[in-house]
Design brief:
- This protein is mainly β.
- About 0% of the residues lie in helices and about 45% in strands.
- It has 1 helix and 14 strands, in the order ββββββαββββββββ.
- A 4-stranded antiparallel sheet has the order 1-2-3-4, with no helix packed on it. A 4-stranded antiparallel sheet has the order 5-6-7-8, with no helix packed on it. A 4-stranded antiparallel sheet has the order 9-10-11-12, with no helix packed on it.
- Strand 13 and strand 14 form a beta hairpin.
- The N terminus is likely disordered.
Length: about 210
């Protein structure tokens, strides 16, 4: 980050949690993926602090890496193999050792209107039962997300879709995909949060 070319870069979202006691960050970083105006925002990066120092690694480098169902009729989800991923990241440690999940926004080329209207909500996981899936592919989500775990280690994601109008959704991880449910058509322009109660009830707060 000492290079002058990073001066204009803006951090879009930052996730933090303790994973097995280790401070862990998730954010959009890495290289510019061929878009100099977006220096340092092309990839999903995990950084961990050990021994008094931070070390980072790129875990997702572009669009099309996540599996699951693309809900866009034109299959825009696969566009931009060197696309902009890792935006608006949130990280959550799971109930099992080494288990962590990160929800993030995939904006593909991050240039034209279709990149935003067809953005994906995606989740990258590590540890037991890890999957890398689109939560909601191709329908403009990702600006507001929150992630939690069920007691059996499945991820639950609350998020909004922004086009053509804002709506609030919850998705529960299954094998190879997510089960999505719209819970409100209210306007939610600011924040959203999700957690799972001890009895398994999913709670969502938003405004």
């Amino acid at each position: 980050a000492n290079e002058n070319r990073y001066i204009e870069a803006q951090l879009v979202g930052l996730g933090f949690d303790f994973v097995d006691g280790t401070p862990t960050l998730a954010f959009a970083g890495g290289d510019d993926d061929g878009h100099p105006q977006q220096v340092g925002m092309g990839d999903l990066v995990i950084a961990e602090r050990n021994g008094g120092a931070w070390s980072g690694r790129t875990v997702v480098a572009g669009s099309g890496e996540a599996g699951g169902t693309c809900l866009d009729e034109t299959n825009y989800c696969a566009e931009g193999q060197a696309g902009h991923v890792g935006l608006r990241a949130h990280v959550r440690a799971g109930p099992a050792p080494g288990q962590v999940a990160i929800t993030y926004k995939d904006e593909h080329f991050r240039f034209g209107s279709e990149d935003f209207s067809s953005a994906d909500v995606e989740v990258y996981e590590e540890g037991p039962g890890a999957q890398h899936l689109m939560v909601d592919g191709g329908r403009s989500g990702g600006d507001r997300t929150s992630i939690a775990f069920t007691s059996d280690g499945r991820t639950v994601v609350a998020y909004t879709l922004d086009q053509p109008e804002t709506s609030v959704w919850v998705a529960v991880e299954a094998e190879g995909d997510y089960v999505r449910s719209q819970i409100s058509d209210d306007t939610a322009r600011h924040r959203i949060a999700v957690d799972v109660a001890p009895d398994g009830t999913i709670w969502v707060a938003y405004y």
